[in-house]
Amino acid sequence: MVNIYMTVNGRLTEIDSVQSGCWINLVAPTEDEVNEIINTVGVDSGFLRSGLDEEETSRVEVEEGQTLIIVDVPLAQKDKEGDAVRYSTLPMAIISMPEYIITVSLKETSIINEFAAGLVKNVETRYKTTFILMMQLKIATRYLQYLKQIDKISLYVERQLHKSLRNKELISLLELEKSLVYFSTSLKANEVTLEKILRGRIVKLYDDDQDLLEDVLIEVRQAIEMSNIYSSILSGTMDAFASVISNNLNIVMKVLASITILMALPTMVFSFYGMNVSGLPIPNSWFPVLLSAVITIAAAVILRKKNML
Hints:
Blueprint: E1 2-8, E2 11-15, E3 22-27, H1 31-41, H2 45-50, E4 59-63, E5 66-78, E6 85-96, E7 100-105, H3 110-116, H4 128-163, H5 167-198, H6 207-274, H7 286-305
Parallel strand pairs: 3-7
Antiparallel strand pairs: 1-2, 1-3, 4-5, 5-6, 6-7
Helix pairs in contact: 4-5, 4-6, 5-6, 6-7
């Protein structure tokens, strides 16, 4: 899918054809659409296809007047099996050309949708550097929003685990921990890319752009710190609940062993009195019952004092 946008009278408007100063957005484009954009605007095919590789890492590259910036964008998708939300990251390519800005990604993202819907104010596609930095700021802000959501979900799951230790909640915590690892790795890669841009050798920065880029770096570093903190807390929580589950299993096994001992005592008494052996004390029918009851009660009291029951 290819959409073309341009700022007209202060508003971001979708247009039908490529014009100087426009923004070209490609989401999961077909091979024909990719070739059409390459032939129309002359963008480097390697730059354009790099945004379609799920394994691309965040980086910046310059070649023949074209600048490629790949950033990892956060994604929140509903699980197919239920209502749970899974968080992950996706590489997105931002290509700056003398007359155009091109973004390429494999999936639709909320950041791109907000820009396209005009929800981001003061967007000017002609000012390419400012446009790119505003997009980077929006990406960093979205990371922070998703991290807060992850923290709330983890707190809810912890409360559920206090009531009942089930595999479902533990798996949910594991998924959140994986999401935090993805976020932390992607944020650190984005930070390195932004620091390269901050040096001013790759993209020409004006004073306002420099201030905006510094704001983006602050947001990214804050997101990295939050991600590390939440990851440490979640890892500690997982270890704590694993210990609780192991301890509960030991308690159950201890109680079952105690019950087995108590059940074995009457069996032993009746086994002796059930054999054809002479000389047993008080060989009356009521005595084995009384003896087994006394021994079982005494053993139960001893086990209780030792916290075995």
